[in-house]
Design brief:
This protein is mainly alpha-helical and about 150 residues long. Among the domains are: about 5-65, Multidrug-efflux Transporter Regulator, Chain: A, Domain 2 (Orthogonal Bundle); about 90-125, no CATH class. Helices cover about 50% and strands about 5% of the residues. It is built from 6 helices and 3 strands; from the N terminus they run βααββαααα. The chain has helices at about 5-15, 15-25, 45-55, 60-65, 80-110, 120-125; strands spanning about 5, 35, 40. Strands 1-3-2 form a 3-stranded antiparallel β-sheet. The N and C termini lie far apart (about 85 Å).
Length: about 150
């Protein structure tokens, strides 16, 4: 068995040794031996780390990624979850494309002030958090008068 020292695995994967130790601590990867105090990993860890990086890039949490490995550490990718994530990415791409286009318009807008630009004002409205109606405080009517007791 050709084992990789933690330093070699860190170098080949681009993942710092401290992160590798953390991934091992939470059960994402597993060392198979030790050489003195240094952890040793089999080559399968390189594939696991590539899948972890891909999952993180796609927006999966480490817990979600952990569930994408079988008990033996081999990939066991849930197709439904992947489709759902892809759908969310499609939505995010559309939203970011709209935002990019709006920003480019505002940057090139001939209006003397951005506040005079209708597209910029619309962008501001979309970026503002929605206003929720406030509930009346107990003991008060909608007009603010004390309720009769």
């Amino acid at each position: 068995m050709n084992l990789l020292d933690i330093g070699v695995l860190a170098e080949r994967s681009g993942v710092p040794a401290s992160t590798l130790r953390y991934y091992e601590e939470i059960g994402l990867i597993e060392s198979v031996a030790r050489h003195g105090l240094r952890r040793q990993f089999d080559r399968r860890a390189l594939t696991q780390l590539a899948l972890i990086a891909l999952g993180k890039t796609a927006g999966f949490s480490l817990d979600e990624i952990k569930g994408m490995f079988g008990k033996d550490g081999s990939p066991d990718l849930p197709r439904t979850a992947l489709h759902q994530r892809a759908d969310r990415l499609d939505l995010q791409i559309r939203e970011l494309t709209t935002l990019r286009n709006a920003l480019r318009h505002v940057a090139d807008c001939p209006a003397t002030s951005h506040m005079e630009c209708p597209k910029f004002r619309k962008l501001l409205r979309l970026a503002s958090p929605p206003q929720r109606p406030r509930a009346p405080r107990p003991g008060r009517s909608k007009r603010g008068d004390a309720d009769p007791a």
